[in-house]
Amino acid sequence: MIRPAICDYPEHYRGYVGLVPEGDIIAIINAQIEETVAYIKENEDRRDFRYAEGKWSLIEVIGHMIDTERIQAYRLMRIARGDKTPLAGYDDEGYVENARFSTRTIDDLLEELVAVRKSTVSLLRGLSEDTWEKRGFANNGEFTVLAFAYIIAGHELHHLKLIKERYMD
C-alpha cells in the first residue's frame, strides 16, 4: 500500500500525514499505541499539568485523542462503505470542555484509548484492497479512506510529540 497523495486530503492535514513513517499503515497504527500508553503511564503524575494558560491538561489531551480517533474512524468507515453524504466538522474545544475528562483517571482514559485503537485496527483489517482509494467529503474537504488511516496515525504522533515537548520536565 502506498502513502496517500497530496490530493487525497485537504492541506490542513499534511502535517499529520507527514509524521507517519514508511510502512504498512495498519501495522503502524497497531504498534504505535503501545509507545503512547507507556509514555503517558510513566508520566501520569502530570495529568493536570497545562504548559500554558488556556491550554488543555494532559488528561484532556488524552480525551481529545480518543474523541478525534473515533470521529476520524467513523468518517473512514462511512466513506469505505460508499456513503456519499458530506460529513460535518466538529468543535474539538467544545468536545473537551463538555467531556469533563479531568473527572476520570488516567488508567480509565488509557483503557478507552486502547479500546478505540483496537476497534480502528479491526475496521482497517476488514477493508478490501479496492476500498482504500474510495473518496468522500468531510469537514468541507475531500478525503480517501487511506488518507484517514494516515491522519489517525499522524494525529496520535502529533500529540505524543507535543506531550513529550510541552508536558514533561
UniProtKB/TrEMBL annotation:
Top-level division of the source organism's lineage: Bacteria
InterPro entries: DinB-like, DinB/YfiT-like
Residue ranges of domain DinB-like in the record: 44-163
SUPFAM superfamilies in UniProt: DinB/YfiT-like putative metalloenzymes
One Pfam family it belongs to: DinB_2
Protein's UniProt name: Damage-inducible protein DinB
Species name: Niallia circulans (Bacillus circulans)
